[in-house]
Amino acid sequence: MIGKLSGRLDYRASDHILIDVGGVGYVVYCSERTMAVLPGPGEAVSLFTELLVREDLLQLFGFTSLVEKEWHRLLMTVQGVGAKASMAILSTLGPDGVSRAVTLGDWNAIKAAKGIGPKTAQKVVLELKDKAPNVMAMGGSLAAAQGNVVKATSEDDVLEPISAPTASAQAEALSALVNLGYGHGDAAGAVAQAAGEGAAETPALIRAALKLLAPKD
C-alpha cells in the first residue's frame, strides 16, 4: 500500500498530477480543492495517498491531510459512491464541509456535488453520520499532536477544571470545531455546555456541540 508520496511535481492536469519520486513518476488524482493548493511544476510536493485496486485498474488518489483521506475512504464505503463521486464531494465541500454536513444530516449540502443525486446524498448522511465525529476528532488529535493546541482567548473561554481523560476529549472537540471555522469562544462555550449535559467522549462532544452551534430557524 502506498500511503504517502514526497517528491517533485513534474506536471499538472485538470484532475491529476505527476510526482517524480526518485526517478519514478506517479500519477496522482486529486480533488479540485487539493489541486488549488498544490505548488507549480518543478517544486517539492508531499501528499497522503490512497491506492484504488481493481482488476483492470490501479489508481492513486492524493490528499493534503489524513482527514481528507479518511473521508475519501469512508465515502467509498457507501453503495453508489465510487472514487469519482467521492472526489466530487470533497471538491465541493472539502473535508471540513463533509464533516459538518454529515454530522448535521444536511444531505442537501452533499447533493450540491457534481453527479450526486438526492438518494445517494441521503445514503451518505445515513450511513456515515455515526462515523463523522470520529473523523473530526482525528483532525483535532492531529492538530494537538502537531502543537496546534487551541488556547482560550479570554477568561470566558476557559473550561472548568475536569479530569484528565475528559479534559483531553474536550480539547480535541474544541480543536475540531475551531478547525471547522467556529470562533474559539463560541466553540468553547458549546463544548462546555455539551460536557455539562453529560457528553464525555470526543465524538459525543463534537456532535452535541455542533447541534448547539447550528443556526436556529
Structure description:
Its main location: cytoplasm. Residues 167-217 are annotated as: Domain III. With 217 residues, the protein is an alpha+beta fold. The chain folds into 3 domains: 4-63, Beta Barrel (OB fold (Dihydrolipoamide Acetyltransferase, E2P)); 66-129, DNA polymerase, domain 1 (Orthogonal Bundle), CATH 1.10.150.20; 138-213, no CATH class. The protein is 50% helix and 18% strand. The protein has 9 helices and 5 strands, in the order βββαββαααααααα. The protein has a 5-stranded mixed barrel. A hairpin with a 2-residue loop joins strand 4 (44-54) and strand 5 (57-63). The longest helix has 22 residues, at 83-104.
Number of β-strand runs: 5
What kind of oligomer do you see?
A: single chain
Strand content: 15-25%
Radius of gyration, whole Å: 19 Å
Number of helices: 9
* Poorly predicted regions: 140-165
Subcellular location: Cytoplasm
Family: Belongs to the RuvA family.
Region (Domain I): 1-64
Domain DNA helicase Holliday junction RuvA type: 1-62
List keywords for this structure.
217 residues, alpha+beta, OB fold (Dihydrolipoamide Acetyltransferase, E2P), DNA polymerase, domain 1, 9 helices, 5 strands, globular
In a few lines, what is going on in this structure?
This protein has 217 residues and is of the alpha+beta class.
Secondary structure topology:
Elements: E1 4-12, E2 16-21, E3 24-29, H1 32-37, E4 44-54, E5 57-63, H2 66-75, H3 83-104, H4 107-111, H5 118-128, H6 132-145, H7 164-179, H8 184-196, H9 202-213
Parallel strand pairs: 3-5
Antiparallel strand pairs: 1-2, 1-4, 2-3, 4-5
Helix pairs in contact: 2-3, 2-6, 3-6, 6-7, 6-9, 7-8, 7-9, 8-9
Domain Holliday junction DNA helicase RuvA C-terminal: 169-214
Region (Domain I): 1-64
GO biological process, one term: DNA repair
